[in-house]
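2024-03-11 09:14:02 DEBUG pipeline.ingest accepted 1 chain
2024-03-11 09:14:02 DEBUG pipeline.ingest length=122
2024-03-11 09:14:03 DEBUG pipeline.predict start
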Amino acid sequence: MATRKKGQLTTSPEWGRHLRPLLKRWFWKGERRAVLGDVAAEVNGAYLDSVDEILLEVASWDGNAPIVELAVTHAPQHRSTALSIDVAMAIVMDTALARGYGPAGRDESMQGYVYRYQRIDD
């Protein structure tokens, strides 16, 4: 039975001579899936799903940063009530403008949206 090597995420059951092509394919397929799972877990953890969390993130922005990004899920919650993304981002926009940041674009992904804000020159 083969063991897990340093830097690998999955194990291989056996490297029998007649099974090597099949098991190698299964092993590397498992490695690719494990890496994609780790990346997806990182990304999912980065998206904020509560309006209160989003407002805390905006409040923590450094006033000297020229551009900041904010990752938000498709349907943020506010006090256990689902809001439309437009209503939630209107609330966030008021706070961002008060901090001196204006909108600079938005990207969409499977998990939600990534909003970019830039510093407004006074």
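2024-03-11 09:14:41 DEBUG pipeline.report Strands lie at 48-50, 67-78, 81-82, 101-108, 112-119.
2024-03-11 09:14:41 DEBUG pipeline.predict end
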